[in-house]
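Dear colleagues,

As part of the handover before I leave the project, I'm documenting each prediction I ran so the next person doesn't have to rerun anything. This entry is a single chain, and its sequence is reproduced below.
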Amino acid sequence: MRRLSTIVLFATVLLSVIFATPLAAGPVRGAIFTTLADGSVVNANHYESKCAFYLDGGPGPNAPAHAAGLADGDYYFQVTDPSGKLLLSTDPVSNRRFTVKNGVIVAYTGAGGPAHPTATDRDHPELGAITIRLANSTCPADFADSANSGGEYKVWATPVNDFVGDSSGVDSNCGNSCYHGFVPSKSKTDNFKVANGAANDDCFIVQKQVQQHDGTFLPGAEWPIFVTDPLGVVNEYDTDGSGQVQVCGLTRGQYQVVESLDVPEGIGSEVIGLFVNGVSLPAEATYSFTWKNAKRPIVILFQNKLGVGPT
């Protein structure tokens, strides 16, 4: 009887420890991108001045609110050079804060510095969606110019609870694999350029096609595509109504593109075709490549068949 009581006591303590231990948070879902004040352009990528571009999150123009939407909650943002090593934002981290609700940015909640202007996002104004200018009201003084010869910048967003360091300061020395308090696995990023007049040739395009019962192919709309950049940040994009998504502002390094095998309705699928710039490759849901400057855009086409694979 004493032995049984001991076992029951041990099991009770073990269960209490398990359920009292916080579960590790998963990767941040969704994506961010730069746009014009009204949110009318996704990844415009090239702007005439630092005062011209705004931060948007989740769905792009004409997309459902859930499409690549950030999880609801509070976030910090920062601007760096493409490598992430050089912080270009000059105001305190606490002044670079915003709130997401129903998958869209609904409020700028920064404090401790000059305010960042906001504008109404023409997509989902019924949800209170807004955009936030990456430069605060002192623009163009804030933020610093990029030392990158191509005029390239990187914007980051990370949940407030995942920020490492003191948010009352401008920078945070958080050690290796952490960039000014932002951890790649807990962040979303987007690259953009300012006033260099270059063409949008630093992009790749993902196309999605779904085979019908008669053997023909139709565009795969709202299909999740996951892109891992050279820093290890994973951004989620959803294809548009034409079954396509474009990712611009690429920097040198290794990229991995992965398509989900679950369509939005939750029906499993099987990859039956993979084409890169028109060349057929073994059918896989993953394609990796190394990006170098001055390359022509890469077009990646995934073809799927519904009703098989994971559900």
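DSSP finds one helix and 20 strands in the chain. Confidence is low (pLDDT under 50) at residues 1-25.

All the best with the project,
I.
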